[in-house]
Amino acid sequence: MKFVEVPLKFLRDYTIPMADHESWDRRRAAIIPSSLFMAFFYLAGALNDDGFSNPLLQFSLYMIIPGLMIGAAIMFKTKKSQAPDWLVTTYAIICFVMSIMWIKFSSDCIMDLLKLFGFVSGLPTAFFGLTFLAWGNCLGDLSADVAMTK
User: Fold this and answer.
1) What is the pLDDT of residue 139?
2) pTM for this entry
3) What are phi and psi of 73, to 5 degrees?
């Protein structure tokens, strides 16, 4: 499981900024501005197979340079143990947007898998979609029931 968990945790940590003072990490806060645009456009599905002719890919590659400059300023101008309030507020807004993009990306992957299962099994895709929706609807009740039982 570590084979899957480690890369996904790395991507999550360096594409979603920390949104509170307790999780402040100056090194992570300095790396995030350089990876932000590339991660946003990739998760949105805007970076397709056009290669370098894709204008959004070019834009995100150009934005790495200002991101590195902002990251250097964060690294050298902030305290190691305490986050500035303005940066935490900014990162909280970015965190919200990037979290939505990760949810969209995950949902798209699940829908692609459901379409694949429908294609392989010959069953309608709507059947798999409704089944998955029903399972997802029951997870909240399941966790509440388990918590109440404990």
Assistant:
1) 76
2) 0.75
3) -65, -40
